[in-house]
Amino acid sequence: MSGKQFLRRAFEYVLTFFAAISINFFLPKAMPGDPLALIAGDAIRQMGSEKITELRQAYGLDLPLGQQYLVYLGNLLRGELGYSYRYSGGQSVLEVILDRLGWTLLLVVASLILATLIGSTLGAWAAWHRGQARDLGLLTILFTLRSMPPFWLAMIIIPLFAIRWQLFPSGDSYSIPRPVGIQGFLDVLHHAILPILVLTLAYIPTAFAIMRSAMLSVLRADFIRTARAKGLRERDVRLRHAMRNAILPLITLVTLDFGQMLGGVTLIETVFNYRGIGSMMYEAVKSRDYPLLQGGFLIFTLGVLVINLMTDWLYPYLDPRLKETRA
Amino acid sequence: MSEASRAHPRYFLLQLRSNSRISPLAASRRLSLAAGIFGTSILALLAILALAPQTLAPYDPTEIIGKPLQPPGGKFPLGTNDIGQDLLSELIWGTRNSLFIGLIVALIAIAIGTVAGLISGFTSGPVSKLFLRLVDLTLVLPFLPLIILISAYMGPGQRNIILVLSLVSWAAPARLIRSGVLSIKNEAYIEATRALGGSWLRLLVSHVLPGVRSIVLVQFVLVASASILAEASLSFLGLGDVSAKSWGAMLYFARASGAFLGDSWRWWVLPTGLMITLAVLSLVLIGYSLENTKSER
C-alpha cells in the first residue's frame, strides 16, 4: 500500500470513529424525555427544581446544542467518558473499561486465533475433497453450527461441563479468594477455557466458509495445473502453492468478519458472568447506565478499527507484490 | 521428491482427477437442491406453528396452569417454567414472534437497501456518494453493541426491536445490490434501452431491477435469518418485550431464574435453542440454495 493510500485509509478510520462519537452524542438528544434523566438516572425524581437547574448547568445542558457538542468532544479528547452511575464510588467510565478490557482481550484473541487455525484447516481440507462425502458432511455440520445462537451453546455447555462433570467453573474470571503466582495463572486459564471454547465454536464457521471458497478458486488457477504438471507431490501443490495464495483473501475477509463478530462476546461474557467489557454492557443495560453503555460501544468500535488497521499493516508482508509498490 | 511422483502414470491420473469436474459439480448441485428442499420444508413446518398457535398449543402460554419448574410428563410435555406456564405452548407461540420479526425486518431492510443500491449504482451524484458513505459506516460499526446501545435508549418493545434491526440491516444488501447494478449497467440491452430514450425510472424498474433480482432474493432470506438471531440475542439481554412470548425471552427467564444450572436445561433451554437453530438454518439453507442455482445460470 502506498503512503497516500495509507493516509486515506487512516482518514477513513478517524472519520468512522468520529461518527461513532457523534452517535453517542446525538442518540440521547434524539430520545424523548429529559436528557438529565439519562445522565442522573432515577434519582432525578427525588430532586427539587433548584437542584435540577443546578445539575443542568453543571452538565452544560442549558447551552445550545452545537456548543454542547464541542464540550463533549473536548471532554473525550481528555479521555473523559463521563461517570458511571452504577459504580457510584467515583469510578469513571474510563476506569471501569480499563479494568475490564484485559479479560475481554484474553477471550477474543485466544478464540480468534484458535478459530482461524481450526476453521481454515477444515476449510482447506473440505476444498481438497470438494463434492465428496467428507466435504458435504463438514458443510452440513458447519452450517448448523453457524445457525446456533452462541449464548445458547454456552447455556448447554455450562450445565454439562461445569455442573454435571465438574470439569470447569461455571462462571467468573477467577476464584475467590484469588490464588497468587503460578496458581493464579492456572486459575485464570481454568476459568477462561469454557468461554473460549464457545467463542471458538462461534467463530469457526466463518473462517471455514472463507477458506473453503478461497481455496476452491485458487485450485482452479492455472499455476496449480502447472505445479501438478511439473510432477510436484500433491502435498506440495496443496500446502506450498494453493494454501499460500488462499491465505491472502482469508486474512482480509476474516478480519472484516471478525470485527463484526467482536460484539458477540457481550452475550458469552454475560452467560459466564465473565468480568469483561461484554458483561459490563449487559450490566449497564440492566441498570440503564447510559454513560457506561456509550463507553462500551466506543471501545468496541475502536476494536473493530484496530483490527482493520492491523490487516492493512500486515497485508504487504503477506503479499510481496504490495510491498514493492510501497517503495 | 520421490521418483514415483514424477512418473507418468501418476501425472496422468492427476490430470484425470483435475479434469473430472463433472462429479463434484453434480454433487454440489445435488447438495444445493437438497438444501433448498430441506430448508423449505423446515420453514413450512415453522410457518404452520406460527400461523395457528392457538389450535396447536395445548395451553394459553400466558396463563399460569401448574406448579413452577415441573419436569416433562403428564399434562405438560415439556414441563413448566419458573412461574408455572406451559413451556411447549410458549415454544409454539414464540415461533410466530420470531418469524414475524424476521419477515418484517427483511422487508424494510431490503426495501431501503434496494433503493439505496439502485440509486448509488446507477447514478454518481452527491446522493450516491452519501449512500455509499452511510453503507460503509453502518458496516464497520460493531453490530451487536450498536443495536444494544440504540435499543437501550429506545426502551424495550417489539416495535423498537424491528426499528433498530432495520436501521442496521439495510447496508449489506445495499452494497451487494449496488455492485450487481454496476456489473450490468453497461450491458448492451441497458444501453440500447437508454439510446431508445426510455425514461430513467422505467429503465431502472423494468430492466435493472430484474437483473439484480436474485441478489435481492438471497439477501432477503439472509437478512431474515440474521434478524431472527439478533432478536433472540436482544430478548435474551432483556431488551425485548418481556411480556411477549419469544424464544429469546424464554432463554432470558431460564437464565434469570438460574434454572438452567439444574436439570431443567434439558427441557427448557435445549428445545428453545433448537427452535432458533432450525429457524435460522432453514433460511440459511434456502439462501445457499438460491445463491448456487443463480451462479450456475
Summarize this structure briefly.
Chain A has 327 residues and is mainly alpha-helical.
Describe what you observe in this structure:
The complex is a heterodimer of chains A (327) and B (297). Chain A has helices spanning 3-30, 35-40, 49-58, 65-77, 93-128, 133-147, 150-164, 181-219, 222-229, 234-261, 265-272, 277-286, 290-318, 320-326. Chain A is mainly α and 327 residues long. Chain A starts with a helix and ends with a helix. Chain B is an all-alpha fold. Chain B has 14 helices and no strands. Chain B has helices at residues 3-6, 8-19, 22-51, 53-56, 87-122, 126-140, 143-154, 158-169, 171-184, 188-195, 200-211, 213-236, 247-256, 269-296. In chain B, helix 6 (126-140) packs across helix 9. Chains A and B meet through helix 1, helix 6, helix 7, helix 9 and helix 10 of A and helix 2, helix 3, helix 6, helix 7 and helix 12 of B.
